[in-house]
Amino acid sequence: MTKSVEGRPTLTSVRSHLSKKSNRSKRRRPLREETRLWLADSDDSVKVARDNITMGNYHVTAFYTHQAVEKALKAAIIALKRKTPPKTHSLKKLYSEVSDKVELTDRQKDFLGELTPVAQVARYVNAAVELPREVYSKRLAEEYLEIALPILDAVKTRIKEEE
Predict the structure, then answer these.
(1) Is residue 124 in a domain?
(2) What is the pLDDT of residue 21?
(3) For the purposes of burial, counting CB atoms within 10 Å of the CB of 47, is it exposed (0-12), middle (13-18) or buried (19 or more)?
(4) Which end of the chain is more exposed for a tag (fewer CB within 10 A), N or C?
C-alpha cells in the first residue's frame, strides 16, 4: 500500500487494497476460519457496545448489541448448517436457520424480535421519528446487553460443541 507524505495510506492505495481483498474473499475460506472471523467481529461489537455505555451513547450501544447478535447467528449458520447466511438483519430469521441446533428460551427468542428494529431505529431519524440518541436510555441499553450476552454464550457454546 502506498503512503502519503504524512505516512498514511492514500485513498487510491486503500481502494486497491480493498479490491484485492475482495477478490481474495471470493475464494472460499475454510468454514472454521470464516466462523472464527464472524465470532471475533461479534466480540468486537460487544466491546464497542460496552464502551459506548460508559460514554453515554446508548443508541450506539443498542446498535452494536444488535450487531453482535447478528454476527454470532451468522457464524452459527456457517458452522452448524455449512451454508452462507441470508443477507438480512432480522435476528428471528437468522435464528430460524439454526433453531434446531441452538436452544434459546422463549424470552430470548422474543428478544430477537424486539432487538431487530434497533438496526434501523438506532441510526436513522426517519426510523426513530426523532434523534436516535433520544430513543435509548442507559437502562434500556444495559438491559439489551444483559439479555444479549447469554444468547451469544449459547451460540458460541453450540459452535464449539460442533468443532
Answers:
(1) yes
(2) 54
(3) exposed
(4) C
